[in-house]
Design goal:
Elements: E1 3-6, H1 17-24, H2 32-50, E2 57-63, E3 72-74, E4 80-89, E5 95-97, E6 103-106, E7 113-116, E8 129-135, H3 145-160, H4 176-182
Antiparallel strand pairs: 1-2, 2-8, 3-7, 4-5, 4-8, 6-7
Length: 196
C-alpha cells in the first residue's frame, strides 16, 4: 500500500476568522489567535475523518520497489487537481523525473488514477517512486456546505469545551451531528484491500 506524505499546508482555510467570529457571536478580537487555531484544528480533524483535503495542498504518494508490479494506481486524495511530476530512484539510486509522455492520469474517476505507460529501471528499495500531486477543493467557495456546517459545529464545541475533562460536568464528545454531515463525503476507497 502506498504511503502518503503532505508536502505543503493549504494557504487558506475553508472558513475565515470573521465567519467563525460571527458564528461564535464574539464581540472583540482578543481570542483571534485561539479561534484561528481552532479553525485549523477543525479542518485537520475533518480531513483525517473523511480523507479528503478541504483546501488545495500538495502531497506525495510513495511506492516501494515491490509495490510497482501494477502500472495503474489509485490516488486516494480526491478531489485531485493536478499531477506535477513523477520522480523515481534509478538503478544507481539517483533521483530522476519521469517524462510526462511516460504516464497518464485520470482526474475524474473515483478514485482518481495514474498509469505509468513506460516503466523506468528502478532502485530496489523503499520509496522507489513518488507521485507528486495537488489535491483538495480549489478554494473555500468550493467546499460543500455540509462540510462547512460540520466545521462550525466542531469549532463551536472546541471553543466551549476547552479541557478534555471538566470536573463537575458531564463529559461531551465532538457532536455526532457533524459526523452525519461528513459521512457522505467520506473517502471509502482507502479501506478497500484493492486500493493503491
Amino acid at each position: 500500500m502506498p504511503a502518503y506524505r503532505q508536502i505543503s499546508e493549504p494557504l487558506t482555510e475553508p472558513l475565515t476568522y470573521q465567519e467563525v467570529k460571527d458564528y461564535l457571536r464574539l464581540n472583540g478580537d482578543t481570542e483571534q489567535t485561539f479561534v484561528e487555531g481552532l479553525i485549523a484544528a477543525a479542518r485537520q480533524h475533518v480531513e483525517s475523518r473523511i480523507w479528503i483535503p478541504l483546501i488545495s495542498q500538495q502531497w506525495q504518494m510513495q511506492f516501494d520497489f515491490h509495490e510497482l508490479n501494477l502500472l495503474s494506481k489509485n490516488i486516494n486524495k480526491a478531489p485531485l487537481l493536478s499531477i506535477e511530476s513523477i520522480t523515481y530512484y534509478d538503478g544507481n539510486n539517483d533521483i530522476q523525473t519521469l517524462a510526462p509522455s511516460s504516464y497518464e492520469f485520470d482526474l475524474y474517476s473515483a478514485p482518481p488514477r495514474v498509469r505509468i505507460k513506460t516503466t523506468p529501471t528502478l532502485y530496489d528499495g523503499f520509496n522507489a517512486l513518488q507521485v507528486n500531486f495537488t489535491c483538495g477543493y480549489l478554494n473555500a467557495a468550493s467546499v460543500p456546505k455540509n462540510i462547512k456546517l460540520a466545521l462550525y459545529m466542531i469549532i463551536g464545541h472546541l471553543y466551549e469545551i476547552r479541557q478534555e475533562v471538566a470536573i463537575g460536568t458531564i463529559a461531551q464528545d465532538i457532536p455526532y451531528t457533524s459526523e452525519y454531515l461528513l459521512e457522505p463525503y467520506r473517502n471509502n476507497f482507502i479501506f478497500s484491500p484493492l486500493n493503491g
